[in-house]
Amino acid sequence: MQIVTFLSFTILVAVIAYLKTRNTEESSSDGYFLGGRSLTAGVIAGSLLLTNLSTEQIIGLNGAAYQSGLSVMVWETLAAIAMVVTAIFLLPRYLKGGLTTVPGFLAKRFDVTTKTLTSVLFLSGYVVVLLPVILYSGSLAISGMFDVPALLGVTHTQSIWICVWGIGIIGSIYAVFGGLKAVAVSDSINAIGLLIGGILIPIFGLMMIGDGSILEGLNTLTTENPDKFKSMGGPTDPVPFYTIFTGMMLVQLFYWGTNQQIIQRALGAKDLKEGQKGLLLASFIKILGPIIVVLPGLIAFHLFQGNLESVDSAYPELVRKVLPGAWVGFFAAVLFGAILSSFNSVLNSSVTLFGIDVYKEHINKDADEKTVVKYGKTFGVILAIAAMFIAPLIANAGSLFDYLQEINGIYSIPIFSIIIVGYLTKRVPAIAAKIGLVSGCLLYIISQFFMQPYFIETALASAKANGVTGTVELALVAAQAYPHFLDVMALLFLFNVVIMLVVGKIKPRKEAFVQEYTKQVDITPWKYTKQTGIAICAIVIGIYIYFA
Prior knowledge:
Layout: H1 2-21, H2 29-33, H3 41-52, H4 55-68, H5 74-96, H6 102-109, H7 112-146, H8 148-152, H9 156-209, H10 214-224, H11 248-257, H12 260-267, H13 272-287, H14 290-293, H15 295-304, H16 314-322, H17 325-363, H18 369-390, H19 400-424, H20 430-465, H21 471-481, H22 485-506, H23 529-547
Helix pairs in contact: 1-9, 1-17, 3-9, 3-12, 3-13, 3-17, 4-7, 4-15, 4-19, 5-11, 5-13, 5-23, 6-7, 7-9, 7-17, 7-18, 7-19, 7-20, 9-10, 9-15, 9-17, 9-18, 11-19, 12-17, 13-23, 15-16, 17-18, 19-20, 19-22, 20-21, 20-22
């Protein structure tokens, strides 16, 4: 029955996506990469949320909440503020320039080499980190929910390989052969299912704690685990509170404002009004995100008394414990849709970056749009296969969510810094952007993969030599031995910006940069954008004050 429910919902989504997109012109760049610049607010909001909300979020963030409590909700709530900033500041500039890719702006502002370097950085991050993490975390969830090892008579490792390739192949078909509109439509349908299914898990969990009463369950959960319900993280938590004011906001602005896989949804808006409304609708819903990606982790901690072997098993174990059997097939299908959504969204963005910024620019400058799309699709297939081979190899990477966020810093801050300087200055030259990209990447790698391990190992050895043996005490020593990776990101961002401004002062552009209006879409802003944005920011601040 579970398999039938799973297949029925999955096939239904595929059929609706096909019917909705079969008449879209996809031989052109705009048609394939941006859905013909026809996306409306609801579709943009649904696609943004589903692209972001996948198993690496659901499993990883709930695992972090299981371990550290409510303070990890910052990854969700602060995202709402970042989307507000994107809607007010970045999106009008993107649509004014008629951009298909974010690096496309860098070609106009700096030069083609800067654009290519940025595209290659994005693509490297996608194939080495993001796509494999999505595939691996998704495979963990699907394999666990259907007990694939027992179902097929294979080992756990073999079941992960089978699920990785199954998800990868189906996701590739959506992304490579359907274009952005197929991805966005399927995302919107799955968003509804994920919101329903995601909310049911904590509801059933609270009912189990409260003997059938949700309110009683919530009361029991909060009174028996008061330390887990503090919005401000301590020094040993994954996100200490003060990092909100250092690197956390930079990471959020990069992700929601400049990351191609995310912002591509807003770039496909039919006009600025729809794009802004879509971003603000998504930001409001994002405030409710902790109900799906944090609360279940807290419930799991209570139900399992903190005795699970792995923090990333908290969510799958909770689903298995509280979800009635009749719902498992539906929820697995919804989760499968979320996995596909993130995978095919990243893949579609990769196809876009390669086709527009690499193939057309450096391999075949005379290629017509049909040829660009064709070779972009070919690259997408190669990228998907590479990710499918890498995915099972990250099984021992530790906490998936922490791993993903820290590794992303290699390319996120350098790219974000040159985009911000590009928009806020007019005479900083291309050489400054290249220096910023290279120095940002190298310094972060040196900091996090050479200096950090050395300082932490030295501090721990010294502490143990002085008789410190407690787990909590040693964790505090490790946390204080080296700056948090979000602090490192903030320092490198400032360093990058200063370097670029100094170079701009010494060797400025001959002519000031002026952004042209391409008239691809109407850029009249939605009249309630600022008021809505202020209201959303006020709600986020209120939540923090309440739980402080």
